[in-house]
Amino acid sequence: MSEETPDSEEVQSALEYLEMLKEGNMFVGKEGMLEQLTRLAKQGVHPLEVFQSMRKPVQEEKMPPVLSSFDMEGIARYIADKGCKQVVVMCGAGISTSAGIPDFRTPGTGLYDNLQRFNLPQAESIFELNFFRKNPGAFYELAREMWPGNFEPTPAHYFVRLLNDKGILLRCYSQNIDSLERRAGLPAEKLVAAHGNFDEAHVIDTEPEIKVDINELKAALDKGEEGWRALKDAKGGLVKPKIVFFGEELPERFARLHRQDLATCDLLIVMGTSLVVQPFAGLVGYATRTAPRMLINRDRAGTCDSLKFGFRFHLEGEDNWRDVFHEGDCDAGCTALAELLGWDKDLQALIDSKGQASVYRAPWVEASET
Ligand code: OAD
User: Fold this and answer.
1) Tens-place pLDDT, residues 322-335
2) Domains in the chain, start-ordered, CATH in brackets?
3) pLDDT of residue 3
4) Contact by Cβ (8 Å): 231, 220
5) Does 297 sit in the ligand 1 pocket, CB within 6 Å?
6) SS3 letters for 20-39?
7) Which residues form the Deacetylase sirtuin-type domain (predicted)?
8) Is there an atom of ligand 1 within 6 Å of 298 CB?
């Protein structure tokens, strides 16, 4: 697979434009916005592009329908008839809620509604670099609670694994930091942990970056404030797990792979995400125009009214040629799709064996491999 990095001229021009706005005092009191725009600019996204996408829905050129019906049956028929081999999955916190991990934004149960004890200026501050620099204790306390290890993958995670074992998964892009995709047995090269995870730790604000063994951080946090202060002194700065905070760039792997993957995919499945965090949400719009896209979620998300080239499943007739919304839980949606494909026993075997079972390739993949 060829590598793609943002064009350096695009980055240069985006950064220069930001500099100009900064000189015009446009970001006074809006430092968070400046950080987000700088992060996007470094990935080649021009601030004007961001402002435009915030302002008006972008018109897409229509196409003849690529699905026989705009529901899960239509997707299952498409997979089998077309012999899909390049499926891209995008997922978020909703695929892990049945494992007992709360999502972020569901009113009442989501993490952001349950952070009162930290007295934050706003809920998202817990994942903001500026806030962490001044008040590391809040994140550290939360990190101890969120530390992976006590959770098991869900049927939705095993469904992604199933797609891989069937030979039809190109990549899974996950916003989750719980590493449950890997725990379900998804090979590392098939996963892009877009918001990082707890596999590694680093000293913030270091260039070149100083890495720290994640177990060292865990041991320090287990000792409470005294522990993390001692670690800070020993390492010359605050240490945090390599999960992506607002104001930080996404991993290099995300920048390198996403455009090529989305341009090649023959089906996009999006599950359990509100699609409000950029640049992840923008991946939906990068999927090639002939690839069907299906959202499995409790709520509608990522429609073209709010997201550039977003889903069009809410539009009538020729305005939607490829998008499906399957309303409901990720586990149920994945199980239903597996059933329609005749892969339900394979999925169940993976769930029951905690990923130990082996499954046959999809017939069209097997035929192409022999
Ligand atoms: P959100 O909490 O924003 O959205 C989760 C979505 O999943 C919502 O639309 C829920 O209705 C839906 N949902 C929850 N449980 C579900 C289930 N069992 N089946 C189907 N749908 C379900 O979470 P994300 O979109 O993942 O960033 O959030 C994106 C990012 O925002 C996170 O990665 C995190 C956060 O700030 C960082 O930490 C950097």
Assistant:
1) 999 999 999 999 99
2) 8-53 (no CATH), 72-98+153-195+251-369 (3.40.50.1220), 102-150+196-243 (3.30.1600.10)
3) 27
4) yes
5) yes
6) HHHHCCCCCCCHHHHHHHHH
7) 65-344
8) yes
